[in-house]
Structure of IrrE N-terminal-like domain-containing protein:
Amino acid sequence: MGQTTTRTRKSAKTRTRKRARPAPTEEQLQARREAMQVAHEDMMARLERLAADPVEWLEFIETVAEWGARYSLGNQILLMTQAAERGVEPRMFMAYGAHDGTSGWRKHKRTVMAGETGFKIWAPVKRRLREDEVTDYEQRTGRKIVRDAQNRLPVVVMRWKFERTFELSQTAPIVPWADNYEVPTVQVRRQVKLHGGKQAVLLDGDDPTGIYDDVVAMIRAEGYDYALAEPGSDYLGTANGVTVAGAGTRLVRVRDDVSHAQRIKTAIHELAHIRCGHLDQVSFVAPVQHRGRGETEAESVAHIVCKAFGLDSEPYTDAYVMGWADGDMDVVRAAATTVLRVARDIVDELAPIAPFDGKRDPQPEAGTTPAEQVAA
C-alpha cells in the first residue's frame, strides 16, 4: 500500500490574518514627529489669527457650519489648512475603508482614485491605564481617575496619531452606472429622521428648518420653562430672547412678534447659553465669564446650527465679537472648543448621524489635545 500524505487546510481565520506591519524606522518616526510639529504650529497660527481678528472667527464658524459641525477643533483646523493648500472646497471626508467593504468609501461602493494623497486627520490612541500611570495622567490632564464597577482603571487617550481620510472628489464609483451616493448633509440626515428619507413638506412656511419644536423640547429637557412673550415684558425687555437662571427661576423667553426664522435662531441661541454653561453658578442673567465671549459663543452656535439646517443667517457684526478675546489664544481656543462641542451635540440630536454610519470625530479629553501632545 502506498504512503498517504494528509495536508492540513488552514482555517479561514488563519488565511485572512493580517501580516504584522514592520516597525517604523527612525527616519520614519522623525518624519512623523516633524509633520505633527508642523500641524501644531499651523493650529497655533490659526488660533492666533482667530484671537486677533473677528473676521477670522466669522470665517471659521462659516466653514464649521458648511461641514455640519462634524469635527473637533484640532481636526477642523487641520482639514481647513490642507484644503486651502490644495485649493479644494471639501464636501465629505471619509477613510478608504476596510477590505471587506464594511466601512469608509468602500461601504458606499466607491474607490479612491489612483495617485490621490489622503488628508491627514488626528486620531486618538486609546488603552486602559496602568496603575503606575495614574498620578502622571491626573497631573497632566487635571482629571480625576474614576474606576468602573469592577474596580478597573478607565480606557483613556494616551496619545494622538495621524490617519488618512479622503475627500469625495478623490473617489469614483466602483460601478459608474450604479452611483447613487448622496452626501449625508445635516438636512439630509434630518429628512431621514423625520420622513424616512423622503422630501420634507413644509407647512405654509411656518418652520423653514423643521427643528423649532425639537429645540423647544431640548430647552425644556434642561429644566427651563419656555414661552413666547410680548416685547417689553418681564425679563425680556427689548431683547429678542432671554434665559434666566437663579432665585428659583429657570425660564427662556423669546419675542412673539419676530419672524419664524428669527424665532428659531433665538431659541437656539438661548439653548446654546444653557449648553455652554453660561448660566452655571450665577444669579439671573449675569454670565460667569466676559459677556462678549458668552454672547459670541451662543451666537456662533446658533449660526452654525441654523446654517447646517438650511437657514442662512447673518452671524453678527464685528462689534459683537470685538474685544472678547483680547488676543488671548487660550481664551479663543477654549471658546472654539466649546462652540464646536455644543453645536455638534445639538446637530447630532436633531439629525443623528447613525443612518449613514458616519464616524463621529471624538472630542479630546482635557489635557490630551493633539496640540498639547505635540507641545509636550
